[in-house]
Amino acid sequence: MASAQKFWTNKFRILLLPSVLILHTLLIFLRGYFLSIEFTLYPFLRIHGFLPYQDIIDHHFPSLLFGPFALPALLTSNPWPLLAVFLTVLCITDILLYGVLIKFRVRLPLVWTILYVVTSVYFSGNVLWIETFVNLLITLWLFLSFSDRPISKFTSGLLISQIILLRPTLFPALIFMFFGLSLPVSVFLFIGFIVGLLIPGIYLYHFNLIDAFYRLAIVFNSQIYPAAAKLLPAKRQVLLLLLWLAPTVYSLFRNKKYLLLASLFFTLLLVVPRFGFEHLQPLFLIATIYWSLNWKGSGRMVLAFIIILFSLNLISSVRHPYGNYFFTPQVQKVSQFVKQLPGNTIYLLGASDLIYPLSGKYPPNFTYLPSLPWYFSQKDFGKKVISSLAGGYTPVVIDFSATVDGYNVVEKSGPILEYIKMNYNQGETIENYVIYYPKP
Questions:
Q1: Judging by beta carbons within 10 Å of its beta carbon (0-12, 13-18, 19+), is residue 439 exposed, middle or buried?
Q2: pLDDT tens digits for the chain (440 residues)?
Q3: Fewest CB atoms within 10 A around its CB: which of 153, 173, 301, 400?
């Protein structure tokens, strides 16, 4: 009788898990999705010979966006392949989380997985960004940590190295998590970790990028970016976050799990210096696991959280139907126009960088600078762009209405805009976009 009951229980679980994945997918489509442009742009630039740090001015570490572990261009051409990647990563993360909860012998693992799904989507989990992949790696690492096989230990170390490369500020949180969950230490774990760091290091050395990497990923990240890109949370965001975290914090205090509490606290470093719920996706994942492991109260509170967050997702989908946020009809229209222009290069100032891959054109003289205030604040970056424009015939597309953190992007470009005004003639206007052509 007991074996028959276990069989039907397992069968019921197998039937319900796909329903959770369908729920997650439907919520993403209802809320709309933000497929961050970097995942389409950087592979496009890489296949045209652009190298990170030297040609692509970007301060992230060499892992997912560029480097030996970067996503291939074939999977990131917007919109459908990249959307498929996004949904696949989300669903695999859900499956792995469910598996981790089972291995931790958590009661009602499916309920906790649903809580994570509705929480993630509501708190900007519909944004494809680095943290989307961090959550996948964390769940895979935890799932493999239950295995004693050397290959599993090696892979776990490799995964931890990639998590740190993607988000270095997670390092303290991972240390406290490791010891707080009493995960086993192995020499194969350390070997995998070292190999995971060595491969990008060899990549940088091979392409002679170590100096450029140091200037952007180390100096710029530590000395310039924190002050120039600071974005504080709104009071409502802080309140929502505290309300959601309260049961987890309470359960950890009650059970004297201070290492796990420290891990949760250090996960908040993800929003330094720019606050955004999309950056806190690992926090919601980790907190869900900790809550499930330490909660001794009634399941009614968990159910109430699920119902409230599910309702909030539905309300948000009605109030803010984004669709594919970056792939707008306006961007498509401008991209088609730019595609017909002579030459292979174009420079975008304040305009959507998605126009580069959609039009098949790339920035001139191997110089890509994002239209962001913290990059424009550096004079050497501006000079590099001006020098690239002076080297040949390159039309310019400007969106004068573009803003970041309430600041007009074009106005922040300073010398770049002045150079364009002096050396270019205004041409066509397509909605918010103005085309400029070099003077004869």
A1: exposed
A2: 345 445 445 555 667 899 999 999 999 999 999 999 999 999 999 999 999 999 999 999 998 998 888 888 887 776 789 999 999 999 999 999 999 999 999 999 999 999 999 999 999 999 999 999 999 999 999 999 999 899 999 999 999 999 999 999 999 999 999 999 999 899 999 999 999 999 999 999 999 999 999 999 999 999 999 999 999 999 999 999 999 999 999 999 999 999 999 999 999 999 999 999 999 999 999 999 999 999 887 788 999 999 999 999 999 998 887 888 888 889 999 999 999 999 999 999 999 999 999 999 999 999 999 999 999 999 999 999 999 999 789 999 999 999 998 889 999 999 999 999 999 999 999 988 999 999 98
A3: 301
Contact 279, 231 (CB under 8 A): no
- The two three-digit tokens of residue 375, written as one number: 């990059």
pTM here is 0.94
